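Lab notes, practical 5.
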Amino acid sequence: MNSTAAEPAEQGLGSTGAAEGSNRCGYVAIVGRPNVGKSTLLNRLLGQKLAITSHKPQTTRHTILGVSTLAGGQILYVDTPGLHQRGSNALNRYLNRAARSILTDVDLVLLVVEALQFSDEDALALAEIAKAGTPAMVAVNKTDRIADKTRLLPYLQSLSERHPFVSMVPVSALKGDQVERLETAVLAALPQGDHLFPDDQLTDRSERFLAAELLREQLMQRYGQELPYRTTVEIESFTLEQAGGTDHPEAPRARIQALIWVERESQKAIIIGHRGEALKAAASQARLEMQKLFGRRVHLEVWVKVKDSWSSDEAALASLGYGEY
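Output from the prediction step:
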């Protein structure tokens, strides 16, 4: 079996995975099939919520950078959309391109798989990693669901036979089990170098982008069937205004105007709900999440509009912020 995450520490590396007197820094792409827990793992590694999550596959639609500054270095995680075989419309093609495009631009790929599972889409993700030729590590996620941990041994052996992974670490992103061990292994695999971002920076994404994501998260979590996949969010306006005048030194309030785009009038009616109650509830929770992440008060106004078949139209996707990869 290939080396495990425990071995770097045995080679004289400190608790952060960096040798004394050295500093490590590099980009790490978090890759895998949809709904395997990539965004949950990113949030756990960062120690706070950055990427949106839901129980629905393909919640992540854009790559998002998360900066983790440790005593021994800086890890620049890049969360990616799930590589998948389902669907062939413009949005599905965009998601796969977004995930593939990052593989050759990073120092390490972190493949996330579900414990005791290896589907055709897992194989697709691994094939893309092999094609890119970038060093890769495996995070075997959702181990909290496995009562008898000895069942993991043959599974890890089978993974080691599929690819020459740098290391394999069983984790639970949800519970936090062994995530520090994974972090140690990741840092140890990165090249030596200076920090690329300020130590207190969390991401390179703007608050405007994050606001759209947090509102879209509520759509993914609250609405069933295919409706969330036919919706997207556009921030029309994001301005900061001093709350309470100059006599009150608190952080400026964010005033945000957002559009939820759907593909049909019937979808618009569902999003809004009876007397607007559904939309009001989603917007209220999104506003609270924004305030928590931004550390400032937020005033949020939301409208719902129809753009026919936007998810199947390359030009419409581009106009809504889904750039080329």
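Observations recorded by the TA: The beta strands are 24-31, 64-70, 73-79, 108-114, 136-141, 168-170, 232-241, 253-262, 298-306. The longest strand covers residues 232-241.
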